[in-house]
Structures are given as structure tokens and as C-alpha cells.
Inverse folding.
């Protein structure tokens, strides 16, 4: 899935994983859950219009060590003690198509903004994460490098306040806090740079960009357990693109420096 989709649903995944522990086989420690998210989000990072997306998610975990999902990637908690989690992680980034195509979009209104910029190939992004939870505060840092496609390095940092409130005899879980993303020059050039040939093909002015801050904003989620195995999560985010990213001719001419996403996530544990 795209990095943009990861950003939109990461807090929803954290919320559901933090509160859903039904085990397929309690004796073995394996957990299985299936989810589906309906999201309204920009077609690409920097777009000025939202499109509707349906994103399936299957999650498998083993005790408190191994975890894997179609949206959240695959990782292993090498460290898991005293509130600390840390280990390797691999995620999939399906890049960007200049024709605006994406199998997960529900509508047929493809954007023409990317014409002439070429495709950014899909790639696995491998790296590591560190996470610390203390009472109601969760802090996480993740860094990954693309093996192919953009071949750049991208990092994400977040601080979330989590808690719960009682409603009609049920506990409602919430999470809210800031999140920021950074990338090196290879990553930012792939998604926001415009070289001479791309300028000729797209009509956009040439633009060179160095590594640095990509975006920062506020992400939130609200989780309602319907039954012991079924939960519904509403989530949303607002991100401001960093100045150098916003100054890209793609964003300044055809897009927007403000990005909004909202959606709902249904999760079922078996």
C-alpha cells in the first residue's frame, strides 16, 4: 500500500491491535483478525482532492513477538519489556502511477496531475522501529529504506495520547496526537522533484529538493467494541506539508499543501 495510506490508517491499526486480543488458538498464542477500511484521502501525497478507497487488512500475530498485516507490514519485537518495543519491520509501498491508477480506488475519476512525471515503482521498505508506552502516552519512531522503486529512506514519528471512556456500558477507546514524517533526498526527489525531462513531459517547472521534513499533523481515532470479536474504528488525520515539499511545482501548481483523510475501519477477530 502507499505510504499515504499507511499514514491514514496507522493510528486505527494501533488502536485495534491495542484492544483486540482474541486468539485463534490460545494454546499456541496465534492471533488472527480481518478488517476492511473505507477511506476518503488524497489520490497522491500533495493532491488537492480526495478520492474514496477501500482497503482490506488481514493481521496475524504470534504472542507478543511476531506481527504481520497487509496494511501495517511485518515485524518482530526483539525488545519487549518495561514499556519498550523495538525490532525490524518491513512494509510494502506500491509507488505511484502517472496515469493515476490504483486498484483500491472505488471511483473512476483518475487524476491527470501526474501525467509526464513517470511511474514510481513498487518496493519493499525495510527498517526498524522503537516504541515506548508509559501510562496513556505512546511514542513511536520508525525508519525504512526502499529496496527498489523510490530507493529512498523515510521516517515517521508520533506521540499519541490514549485512553477510554464508558458509553452505554461499553468502553470507548480513543487515541490522538501529532505525527511527522521525514525523508532523504532520494525519497523526496522521487515524489516531489521534477527533472528536465519530467518538466518537458508534464508542463511543470523543474524543481530540485533535498532531504528533510515531509509533513506534520494531527492523527486521531475512536474505537467502539461491538462484541468480543467485532470492533469499529473511526479515524481521521490532518497534515501540513513542509515548506520545501509544498513549494514543489507539482504541489504548488496542481495540488495542495494541506492533506486530510477520514475513514472507518471494521475489524473482526476469529
Amino acid at each position: 500500500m502507499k505510504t499515504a495510506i499507511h499514514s491514514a490508517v496507522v493510528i486505527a491499526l494501533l488502536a485495534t491491535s491495542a484492544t483486540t486480543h482474541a486468539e485463534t488458538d490460545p494454546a499456541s498464542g496465534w492471533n488472527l483478525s480481518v478488517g476492511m477500511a473505507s477511506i476518503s484521502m488524497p489520490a497522491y501525497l500533495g493532491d488537492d482532492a480526495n478520492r474514496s478507497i477501500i482497503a482490506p487488512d488481514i493481521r496475524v500475530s504470534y504472542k507478543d513477538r511476531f506481527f504481520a498485516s497487509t496494511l501495517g507490514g511485518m515485524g518482530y519485537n526483539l525488545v519487549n519489556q518495561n514499556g519498550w518495543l523495538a525490532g525490524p519491520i518491513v512494509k510494502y509501498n506500491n509507488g505511484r502511477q502517472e496515469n493515476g491508477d490504483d486498484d483500491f480506488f472505488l471511483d473512476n475519476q483518475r487524476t491527470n496531475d501526474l501525467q509526464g512525471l513517470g511511474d514510481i515503482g513498487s518496493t519493499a521498505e525495510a527498517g526498524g522501529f522503537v516504541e515506548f508506552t508509559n501510562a496513556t502516552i505512546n511514542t513511536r519512531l520508525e525508519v525504512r529504506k526502499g529496496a527498489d522503486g523510490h530507493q529512498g529512506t523515510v521516517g515517521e514519528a508520533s506521540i499519541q495520547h490514549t485512553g477510554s471512556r464508558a458509553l452505554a456500558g461499553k468502553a470507548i477507546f480513543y487515541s490522538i496526537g501529532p505525527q511527522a514524517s521525514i525523508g532523504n533526498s532520494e525519497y523526496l526527489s522521487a515524489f516531489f522533484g521534477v527533472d528536465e525531462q519530467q518538466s518537458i513531459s508534464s508542463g511543470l517547472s523543474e524543481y530540485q529538493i533535498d532531504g528533510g521534513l515531509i509533513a506534520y499533523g494531527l492523527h486521531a481515532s475512536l474505537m467502539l467494541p461491538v462484541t468480543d470479536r467485532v470492533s469499529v474504528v473511526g479515524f481521521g488525520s490532518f497534515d501540513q506539508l513542509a515548506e520545501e515539499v509544498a513549494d514543489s511545482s507539482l504541489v504548488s501548481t496542481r495540488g495542495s499543501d494541506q492533506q486530510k483523510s477520514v475513514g472507518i475501519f471494521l475489524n473482526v477477530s476469529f
Observations:
- Residues 15-23 have pLDDT under 50 and may be disordered.
- The radius of gyration is 19 Å.
- Residues 3-19 form the longest helix (17 residues).
- The chain has one domain: 3-269.
